[in-house]
Design a protein that fits this description.
By secondary structure, this protein is an all-alpha fold. It is built from five helices and no strands.
């Protein structure tokens, strides 16, 4: 769920995983490394949403470039021009395996 499209009251009583909670995800270190290596980070405004999308939709998915562009279409990045982001996500789609027993919903509430 994208936080910009949902009122906070709509998730009252529900578990919410923030970017801090995602640091406990088994693939977070690979995402962090790929974003750093491909200069996919700048001001940080869009980073939490894109990291969440990377973990939920891209890591180990073998997505093609057009699929990665589709994932990024829901995010606004005013700094990077998307080139580094696309490279990082493409690498993650190709090289990182996802644990079949762990999802974003498995993280603790943060």
């Amino acid at each position: 769920v994208r936080s910009c499209l949902l009122l906070a009251v709509a998730v009252e009583g529900q578990e919410i995983t923030t970017i801090e909670g995602l640091t406990q995800h088994p693939t977070f270190s690979a995402v962090y490394r790929a974003f750093t290596e491909h200069h996919a980070l700048q001001c940080g405004f869009c980073t939490p949403g894109i990291v969440a999308s990377a973990i939920a939709e891209v890591v180990g998915s073998n997505k093609e470039e057009e699929d990665i562009v589709d994932v990024l279409s829901g995010h606004l990045c005013r700094c990077t021009g998307y080139i580094g982001l696309k490279k990082a996500l493409y690498e993650l789609a190709r090289t990182t395996e996802v644990s079949s027993h762990h999802s974003l919903a498995d993280n603790e509430q943060h």
